[in-house]
Amino acid sequence: MRRRIIAGNWKMNKTPTEAVALCELLKDLVKNDAVDVVYCVPAIDIIPVVNAVKGTNVQVGAEDISFEDKGAFTGQISAEMLVDAGVKYAIMGHSERREYNHETNEDVNKKVLKALENGITPIMCCGESLAQREQGITIDWIRQQVKVGFQGVTAEQAAKSVIAYEPIWAIGTGLTATAEQAEEVCKAIRDCIAEIYGTDTAEKIRIQYGGSMNAKNAAELLAQPDIDGGLIGGAALKADFGQIVNA
C-alpha cells in the first residue's frame, strides 16, 4: 500500500516569524504516523521552519528549485543550498510558475533530474486549463507533461517521486474537480507511468490531487484508489490542514 503524502504549498505567504507561529499552531494537529506531512515554504522561511519542525513528523520542502548548480543566476536557489538547509522535497512545474515564469516541460524535466541527483524528492505538478478540459484534451495534455517531465528518469527514481495533479481551473477559484474527475486523471497518470516503466513502478509512485482540496472534501478525494495525497494551497495556512492530514 502506498504511503499517503499531504503537502502544503504556502506560496508567497508568511514571514519567517509568522511561519514559525503556524508551525506551532499545526504541530499537534498534523500528528499522524501513517502519513508523510510536508510544508513547502517560501525560500526565506526554509531555515526557520526546518528548525521549528525538528522533533516532529513534518518534513520541509521548497516551492521551486534551480536546475543549475551554481553561478550568475540571480534569485535562484540550488539543490545543494536546499539540501544543506534541510529540505527533503521540492515542487516543480506548478501552474503558476509555468504561467508567470514561462517554464516549459523541458525546464521542469531539468529540475526533476537535478532534484533526484541531489536526493530531493520531486513533487512534479501537471494540470489542464478550463479551455483544455472543455476541448477534451485533458488526458493528452497531462500525458505529455508527465512524459517530458520524466525524460531520463530511471524506474527506481520514478518510484520514489511524487506527481501532483492540479487542474488549473480549480486552483484558488473555489472550484474543485469531482472525486470522479480527479480519479480519472490520476489513474491516467498512473497508466502513463506504467507504459513508461511498467506496472511495478506505477504501483509505487505517489500521485496527489491539488486544486482546492479542503477539510470538507479531502476524505472523498483521498478515498479514490489512485489518489495518494494532496498538494494543499490555502487550507495549508490554517488549522484545517490538520483535518486534511487526518482525513
Outline the structure in words.
By secondary structure, the protein is α/β, with parallel strands linked by helices. Helices cover 41% and strands 17% of the residues. The protein has helices at 16-26, 46-52, 79-85, 95-100, 105-117, 130-134, 138-149, 155-159, 179-197, 199-204, 218-222, 240-245; strands at residues 4-9, 35-41, 58-62, 89-92, 121-126, 162-165, 206-210, 229-232. The chain has an eight-stranded parallel barrel with strand order 1-2-3-4-5-6-7-8, surrounded by four helices. The radius of gyration is 17 Å and the shape is globular. The model has no long low-confidence stretch (mean pLDDT 96).
Write the layout of secondary structure elements.
Elements lengths: L3 E6 L6 H11 L8 E7 L4 H7 L5 E5 L16 H7 L3 E4 L2 H6 L4 H13 L3 E6 L3 H5 L3 H12 L5 H5 L2 E4 L13 H19 L1 H6 L1 E5 L7 H5 L6 E4 L7 H6 L2
Parallel strand pairs: 1-2, 1-8, 2-3, 3-4, 4-5, 5-6, 6-7, 7-8
Helix pairs in contact: 1-2, 5-7, 7-9
Key attributes of the depicted protein:
alpha/beta, single chain, 41% helix, 247 residues, eight-stranded parallel beta barrel, globular, 12 helices, 8 strands
